[in-house]
Amino acid sequence: MPALTGQSPEALAAWLADHGEPAFRAGQILEWVWKKKVTSYDAMTNLPAALREKLAAHFPLTALTHTTTQGSADTTRKFLFKLHDGRYVESVLIPANPALYGETSDRRTLCVSSQVGCAYGCKFCASGLAGFTRHLDPAEIAGQVLAAEQLSGQRVDNLVFMGMGEPLANLENLLAAIQLITGPKTLHLGARHLTLSTSGLVPQIRQLAEHPQQIRLAISLHGATDDVRQQIMPINKKWPVAELFDALDYWNSRKNQKLTLEYILIHGINDDLEQAAILARHARRLHAKVNLIPYNTVEGLDWVRPSDTRCRAFRDVLKNAGVSATLRLEKGHDIDAACGQLRLKQETTEGLIAPAPIKAR
Ligand code: SAH
Ligand code: SF4
Fold first, then answer.
1. Minimal CB count within 10 Å: which of 62, 72, 241, 272?
2. Domains, the chain, ordered by start
């Protein structure tokens, strides 16, 4: 049964009308859920008890049950949520993210998951390790933001769809969730504060380019040429870099937000300076900024991060070519690799997925 937090204002109004309720109840319910952020129907004190009961019988209030939090208020916090089918999903709340948003900031960024597992099997990524389980529905996606605000008592200012899963493979649910996240009657966060990260699903990038909202786009590139990229990301066989860059040109022709190219630096795999030079040429042409991320070790995977010296040298090639590039070397702030790992551990412990000896990948 879909949760109340997955209902659009229109769907809720239609449901209330069907059940003989006056139209103004929709506004009251939306206010309780999305503005006052209550966690039970009982807290909706201006609704008649009979309506509260009727709602409770039709919709669970939320789709997520919080199970654990790692971290504390002034550090990165990871929330693990249980879903109705016993699966798990995680979200990561980062107090400030200078790598993405400039020097110091008191803004909070939430890294949101879009699927349980992922079908794309990138070779650096914990989310893809156990394969794809299922899409998240709109309540499960938007509900992560609401839950993070409830649990932290703080407003989330920025959202990155960089958690578990490939958001563009779940575009319909994602767009419905974005409606809930940006809608004035629901969470009302500006579309410009949303960044969607994709491994490069070309048709969906073109489709999203037509979307009226100014959502930001980040591309998981991780290799500047086909030979390097396809060792890391199997999707490159389907959508090689030339086709990806064509889609990004198209994106640029429709949108005025700068693209971000994400590039994980992996020792001996994609960190030679020739890749940096090629990456710099692409980034300049696309007017994109580059986010360099030293590889975070994932249990079950072999690769290692390059030395700090190599990471800086790679960044300097980009900078010297006039490209805006960020590199964060300190540990503990790496939100990116965080997503997927908690869930993997939990589901493995519960026997939902087999412990994976992944070395062969
Ligand atoms: N499926 C989408 C969204 C998932 S986020 C996509 O691939 O873009 C993927 C991002 O998480 C990567 O681009 C990278 O920035 C980060 N990431 C995943 N695994 C990582 C690792 N082992 N080390 C560092 N960053 C990692
Ligand atoms: Fe999936 Fe993205 Fe991880 Fe690749 S990086 S396996 S696309 S979640």
1. 72
2. 4-58 (1.10.150.530), 65-349 (3.20.20.70)
